[in-house]
Amino acid sequence: MAEAFVGTWNLKESEKFDEYMKELGVGFATRKVGNLTKPTTIISMDGDKVTVKTQSTIKNTELSFKLGEEFDETTADDRKVKSIVKIEDGKMVHIQKWDGKETSLVRDVNGNALTLTLTLGDVVCTRRYEKAE
After folding, report:
1. How far is Cα 27 from Cα 32, in angstroms, rounded to an integer?
2. Helix (H, G, I), strand (E, B) or coil at 17
3. Is the pTM of this model over 0.90?
4. Which of 45, 47, 49, 120 has the highest local Cβ count within 10 Å?
């Protein structure tokens, strides 16, 4: 269940994040800054509520939700989206929908490693995190 995702995760490597941000419509300057940041993601649970905090030197975001329930989200790049997060096959699957578009953010934990796979259209970005001790 979602307990496997609880912890503090530090970004170690990222592939095709610039392409993913470009596909989202993120501007050049913001993409350059986004590519330089190494965010820390803190995932916690309180009962059936999951909280995902992302912290970096540039921007901090916090998202709280119940698994399987749609909610309104304002993304780090300021998109207003409808989101839903579910656990599917041991993975935390986050779907965002806006303006007829859809992206998925899939987190998969394997021991002390968390892989975040971002998919929008044909663009697939992989971001690898390591659990903080």
Report:
1. 9
2. helix
3. yes
4. 120
